[in-house]
Design brief:
The complex is a heterodimer of chains A (about 375) and B (about 550). Chain A is an alpha/beta fold and about 375 residues long. Chain A is built from 13 helices and 11 strands. In chain A, helix 6 (about 170-180) packs parallel to helix 8 (about 220-240) and helix 7 (about 190-205) crosses helix 13. Chain B is mainly α. Chain B has 24 helices and 2 strands. Chain B has helices at about 1-5, 20-25, 30-60, 65-80, 80-90, 95-100, 115-140, 145-155, 160-185, 190-195, 205-210, 220-250, 255, 265-290, 305-350, 360-365, 370-380, 390-415, 415-425, 430-460, 460-470, 475-485, 490-515, 520-544; strands spanning about 290, 300-305. Chain B has a two-stranded antiparallel sheet. In chain B, helix 11 (about 205-210) runs antiparallel to helix 12. The longest helix of chain B has about 45 residues, at about 305-350. Chains A and B meet through strand 1, helix 3, strand 2, helix 4 and helix 5 of A and strand 1, helix 15, helix 17, helix 22 and helix 23 of B.
């Protein structure tokens, strides 16, 4: 029996190491001349510009071009991949590289839309900060199917001129809304930031948040989530437009903060206040902060579809985006300000100054779907 | 799409045909509100724009202002829906320009409001010029002046004559344009995303969101939704046709029941339409050069050309792309439209010949784009899908064609067939008749139809996105992708460029059609041409 286990174990190891062998020189040689179609959210001029820079650098260094396919929501790319899977298009696909995490990654993994495990074999993997939870994505093991790119933390932004003492917990937030009606809101779920707001609130409000890190149990869902709906019923009554309408996205909350319609905006970038000030979207007096309990944190990733046409090009591009040079620039507050996934010792410039807030890990992804559906049922119409 | 609706999606291991998609769709909370809202928006905006259009025609047709109205039509029509929606939002949000002028946030909601009133207003404003434009050749056919004189001699005033005599004639002729307006309002995604309601959104937006959901299990629901959208569209089409039939055939007493007419303020409507539409342009321009423009400042506090400089280098590529596709698809569509028009004229003269049914021609315009594209996308995947430019241009041609066809419809019908006979009797070959007599006469209309086709192609969002697989970016796809980031400054740049490009082509078309002369002038010319012809034939016979 024991022999059998050892044998099985060996078999497993050998299959893994087989998949693991990446001859990097061959990859770079093959990548030369390839164009990588990179599907990524295209709503931010800052991010778009950063990717233009990456394209230039990759082209001069490796002869690889990346073409940013700007999508409004990355799920568009996932549906496209699904359509290609339907048509049994197993090579020469239209997507070479995607920027994903959470629910989208789970979908890609479940429906087998990702290429073989690659992340840990990238040369620049050595610089990655392994103390960050880079091996799981919303508690879904990544198994090297995606490489970490940056860190997101759910933060709140306010203007020190209108607000001196920002609410430090969700209960404080409600108290503030009662005192100042029509001034607070959150992005409408199922938008990424909207659902994150729900999760963060429930993590604080639930009497015991351990079950939130387990798959949802339909039996107990009602009792566990009850405090959240109770909270939202009260919150909506005094929220912006009486909770009959919500901002469509986090970017809209920033616009509304600047317009003076909202007192607090939401972002997943702890440096958002600074970068928005630099680009002229927010006033100099705005500050980002996290709730006293900490900030809901996750990592966003890069992955490669199973049928990518420029697989080698995508590998080279991802490896480059993980380099100290690319990560330092990405973290530069005047460029994008996205926190790095590398160990601090490899980072240079203003990206070094980024301080992460105390982090709260993401609940199990099944909660996301369950909360979104229940929210939709209660408030979505 | 039908297959997907019934649950056949191999990619996610769903092989069994089932009604799950429909059950999921029906179980979605808020579906009924969304359907009611969609119907309300589409019916209200269609009726309102038809009404306003007629009011404008009634009070301004061949009045002193008519020339100005007609000249301004082109630039107004050139403004794409998305660009207009962005500008409309800048004006009317609670902290928008109007609020800034008033100095305080306004309480009423027009952008993302619950009942879709803002969406109705924007669609109506945008469709009035289209209907006006489509009415011009129709009214030219109707002999308005004679009608009015006859009516006056019978003691009816102008308004009564318009409403009782011209309306019933105008309505059946404008029917297809109305259908187009209606179908557009039911299936529009981009404009509804920018200013439409969100709680719940209109059905087309819902379907679009489901189609793009990370959870692939929503695909059957999305497909079922797309089918429902198609159904709604047919339903409303029938509704419009029925209303028209009741008004003009069944219940005609209002036409002869006395001298009652409704007062309509056509002049104020046209002023408001033009005013709002044209103010969006300076709005966009201001935002595009603003660095900081905070509420309640009336003008930006810091200015910057940064965004223009940043984008400039990349714009050239995008603009070339957009224009190339537009030129090719509009030209192909124009060619086919002319061929089919010629064919149907022959077919109507010759009973036995097959006539292309008008409904078939207008399918791309009437069926919801989303429903059609879903099928097109899957179809291209099975064939060689990497010819992205080919597919995108094909899809554009497909959607541009009915508009070009419609734009040529009036002029083609008002063409005097006797000219052909005169030509033929002079021994000219049919092609020569067409090339030397008909073509020069209809050239102004052809130019305009071409410009219409280009502007329709330039505004296509879904076909480019879905069939281009991200290989092809146009001004419109960039504009919509960037709008998800809510950066007003960069949105303004793209909206502005989106308006300028078709505008340039309208100007080219107008100049070209002026060069070739207006229809009336041409008619005058042709009259003299035929008389000279007669003279020459006379001479020929003398010399014989």
């Amino acid at each position: 029996m024991r022999k059998l286990f050892v044998g099985l174990g060996l078999l497993l190891v050998s299959t893994f190491s087989q998949a693991a062998e990446l001859d990097w020189q061959a990859v770079e040689a093959k990548a030369k001349g390839q164009t990588v179609y990179f599907y990524a959210w295209g709503g931010s001029p800052e991010i778009n510009n950063y990717l233009r820079w990456a394209d230039k650098r990759l082209n001069s260094e490796y002869g690889v071009r990346i073409k940013h396919v700007k999508v409004g929501d990355i799920a568009e790319a996932i549906t496209r991949l699904a359509a290609e899977k339907t048509a049994k298009k197993n090579s020469n696909g239209s997507v070479d590289m995607v920027w994903v995490n959470g629910e989208n990654f789970k979908s890609m993994k479940r429906y087998d839309l990702i290429t073989d495990s690659f992340a840990t074999q990238l040369p620049n993997w050595q610089y990655v900060d392994k103390t960050l939870p880079v091996d799981n994505d919303f508690s879904e093991p990544t198994l090297g199917l995606e490489a970490p790119w940056g860190v997101g933390q759910l933060v709140f932004i306010y203007d020190t001129q209108t607000l001196s003492n920002p609410p430090a917990s969700f209960n404080d937030l409600l108290a503030y809304a009662v005192k100042h009606p029509n001034k607070l809101s959150y992005p409408k779920p199922p938008s990424f930031h909207g659902t994150s707001f729900l999760k963060a609130a429930l993590l604080e409000l639930a009497s015991n948040n351990a079950p939130l890190y387990q798959p949802v149990d339909t039996q107990t869902f009602t009792t566990i989530s009850a405090p959240l709906w109770d909270y939202l019923d009260k919150f909506h009554a005094v929220a912006w437009r009486q909770g009959k309408q919500f901002p469509a996205s986090a970017s809209e909350t920033i616009q509304l903060l600047d317009d003076g319609e909202l007192d607090i905006a939401i972002s997943f970038n702890p440096n958002e206040a600074t970068t928005s000030q630099q680009s002229g979207k927010l006033s100099e007096t705005t500050v980002a902060y996290a709730m006293a309990a900490g900030a809901l944190s996750n990592i966003h990733f890069l992955s490669i579809p199973w049928n990518a046409s420029a697989k080698e090009g995508a590998l080279v591009a991802i490896n480059f985006l993980l380099s100290p040079e690319a990560q330092s620039r990405k973290g530069d507050l005047a460029i994008w300000g996205d926190p790095t996934v590398l160990s601090a010792s490899h980072i240079t410039g203003s990206a070094k100054n980024t301080k992460l807030f105390k982090s709260i890990p993401e609940p199990h992804p099944s909660w996301q779907t369950a909360l979104e559906a229940e929210w939709q049922k209660r408030y979505g119409h | 799409m039908l297959l997907a609706a019934f649950g056949y999606i191999p990619a996610i291991d769903q092989y069994a045909l089932s009604l799950d998609g429909f059950t999921q769709l029906l179980a979605w909370p808020g579906l009924s509100q969304s359907v009611v809202l969609t119907l309300f928006v589409s019916v209200a905006s269609t009726l309102l724009s038809a009404l306003c259009c007629f009011a404008i025609l009634q009070s301004c047709w061949h009045s002193r202002w008519w020339k100005q109205i007609e000249t301004l039509l082109a630039p107004i029509m050139a403004l794409p829906h998305v660009a207009f929606a962005v500008g409309f939002a800048f004006l009317f949000t609670p902290s928008g320009f109007i609020a800034r002028l008033l100095g305080e946030q306004i309480n009423w909601q027009l952008v993302h409001d619950q009942y879709g009133l803002g969406l109705i207003a924007a669609l109506t404003l945008k469709e009035i010029p289209f209907l006006l434009f489509m009415s011009i050749p129709l009214l030219k056919q109707l002999n308005i002046n004679t009608t009015l004189i006859t009516a006056q001699s019978l003691g009816y005033n102008n308004a009564q004559a318009w409403q009782k005599i011209i309306l019933p004639q105008w309505l059946p002729k404008i029917r297809f344009s109305l259908f187009a307006v209606m179908a557009y309002s039911i299936s529009v995604v981009d404009v509804a995303l920018i200013i439409g309601p969100t709680q719940p959104p209109t059905l087309s937006v819902l379907v679009w969101q489901w189609l793009n959901d990370a959870d692939l299990a929503t695909l059957p629901k999305a497909s079922a939704g797309a089918l429902l959208l198609l159904l709604l569209c047919l339903l409303v089409l029938l509704g419009i046709r029925l209303t028209e039939w009741i008004m003009t055939v069944k219940c005609r007493t209002w036409q002869s029941s006395g001298r009652f007419s409704l007062p309509i303020g056509g002049k104020s409507i046209i002023t408001i339409t033009y005013l709002i539409t044209l103010t969006t342009l300076p709005m966009l321009l201001l935002w595009s050069v603003a660095q900081r423009w905070r509420f309640p400042d009336i003008t930006p506090s810091t200015w910057s050309l940064r965004f223009w400089q940043q984008e400039w280098y990349y714009l050239l590529d995008i603009i070339t792309n957009s224009i190339m596709i537009a030129l090719v698809s509009a030209t192909i569509a124009l060619f086919f439209a002319i061929v089919i028009h010629e064919h149907s004229i022959k077919a109507s003269l010759n009973k036995g010949k097959f006539k292309v049914p008008r409904l078939l021609i207008s399918i791309p315009m009437l069926a919801p784009q989303l429903s059609l594209l879903f099928g097109m996308q899957v179809a291209t995947l099975y064939i060689a899908h990497q010819h992205y430019y080919l597919w995108v241009t094909w899809a554009h041609t497909f959607f541009v064609f009915p508009y070009v066809f419609l734009a040529l419809d009036g002029p083609w019908r008002s063409y005097d067939q006797r000219l052909d006979k005169v030509g033929a009797s002079l021994g000219m070959s049919p092609f020569k008749v067409w090339w030397q007599i008909k073509r020069p006469l209809l050239l102004p209309a052809i130019w305009i139809a071409w410009a219409v086709g280009i502007s329709v192609s330039l505004a296509q969002y879904l076909p480019t996105l879905m069939l281009g697989a991200g290989r092809i970016s146009t001004l419109t796809t960039e504009a919509v992708a960037l709008s998800s980031g809510q950066d007003r400054r960069i949105s303004a740049i793209y909206a502005l460029l989106q308006s300028i490009t078709p505008f340039v082509f309208y100007i080219i078309a107008i100049v070209a059609s002026r060069k070739t002369g207006s229809l009336e002038q041409q008619r005058a010319n042709s009259a003299s041409l035929t008389s000279t012809n007669r003279v020459t034939t006379h001479n020929v016979s003398i010399s014989k």
